[in-house]
Specification:
The chain has 334 residues and is α/β, with parallel strands linked by helices. It contains 13 helices and 10 strands. The longest helix is centred in the last third of the chain and has 35 residues.
């Protein structure tokens, strides 16, 4: 379990939160749920939070529970927001599930390439035993997970050419998340992974500091990477999760009838977010092509080559944490 130390960055975030609350003039209510996330208002996550979560909770409690949304990383990045929720200085965030590995390294199982062979398998696993095992980590970290949403599968863009097999990445300087499993995976593929914050990525691609990057389709489009990248290859190498983290003591302090309203709203949010995310993935591939990007499918046979190349990561994970989480996930691919 990671020791929760209140860092300078979190103090800065808390100060910003106070200023934001003062400037917005919070309407009097019995309870306030501030929900922070890093995505733009056009993303499926914000749409679902606004049109399902906020609306249902405020209507279902006659305004006694107010919901405020803070998109676009207004209150810091995913890691900062999750740390704030764990500490109880922020009620809630909608953040990538992989941040959970900072609290328990077993959660890094979600960072293994090709853990899931389809969107349907991933959703079933997260709604089933696999998701329940991960949810236990939330509770141990002073949080509840109200629902598993999705960012969709991550895909590769670059300026050199289509990527179909690991050899196509040889020597390519690719930006990755600051995630050890992602970095190791791309090294195994022969690329030159360069961890970098998302906020620096567009400029780095524009200036040629990196040649490539990988993200879900919705983020590739929202960030306008089509302006600085020529090729998009649908490798679908990692299924990106988004979780609804809520502070446990805060949720427990709500009256039971309000807890039910929040849970029901979260379930509706999950279903809406997934539906919008899937639709956006489908529609935005066409939009990327309209913007001039060359998009190529990657065959199941070629995806297997990536999966086989990443086998050392699976071996490493098993040696450190055992088979429990991996097997709980893989059974849903059958």
């Amino acid at each position: 379990m990671l020791k929760k130390v209140l860092s300078v960055s979190v103090v800065a975030v808390l100060s910003l939160m106070v200023l934001v609350s003062m400037s917005t003039g919070v309407v009097a209510s019995d309870y306030l749920i501030r929900v922070a996330h890093v995505l733009p208002e056009s993303h499926a996550s914000h749409i679902a939070l606004k049109e399902e979560f906020k609306k249902q909770i405020e209507e279902g409690t006659d305004g006694n529970v107010k919901v405020e949304l803070y998109p676009n990383a207004q209150l810091g990045g995913d890691r900062q927001a999750v740390e704030s929720v764990s500490l109880g200085t922020l009620e809630m965030t909608m953040a990538i599930g992989s941040v959970l590995s900072a609290y328990d390294e077993r959660a890094a199982v979600m960072d293994l390439p090709f853990l899931f062979t389809s969107r349907e398998a991933a959703r079933a696993a997260l709604d089933g035993d696999f998701g329940e095992k991960l949810n236990e980590i939330f509770v141990e970290s002073n949080m509840y997970n109200l629902g598993w949403c999705e960012n969709g599968f991550r895909n590769i863009t670059n300026n050199r050419g289509p990527v179909n097999v690991p050899g196509d990445l040889e020597g390519l300087k690719i930006r990755t998340m600051e995630n050890p499993y992602h970095v190791k995976a791309f090294k195994l593929y022969g690329a030159n992974p360069t961890p970098m914050s998302f906020g620096e990525l567009y400029t780095a691609l524009q200036q040629g500091t990196v040649d490539a990057q990988e993200n879900p389709i919705s983020i590739i489009y929202a960030a306008k990477f089509y302006e600085v990248q020529d090729y998009c290859s649908l490798t679908q190498h990692i299924y990106g999760t988004v979780a609804l983290y809520i502070n446990k003591p805060f949720f427990d302090s709500l009256p039971e009838e309000y807890q039910k309203v929040v849970k029901d709203a979260a379930q509706a949010t999950k279903e809406r977010q997934r539906a919008v995310a899937y639709r956006q993935d489908t529609e935005l591939i066409e939009k990327l092509e309209e913007e001039g990007m060359k998009v190529n499918e990657v065959s199941d046979e070629d995806k297997l080559k990536f999966r086989e190349a990443a086998e050392p990561l699976y071996e490493q994970y098993r040696e450190q944490y055992g088979d429990e989480f991996i097997e709980a996930a893989l059974q849903y691919n059958e």
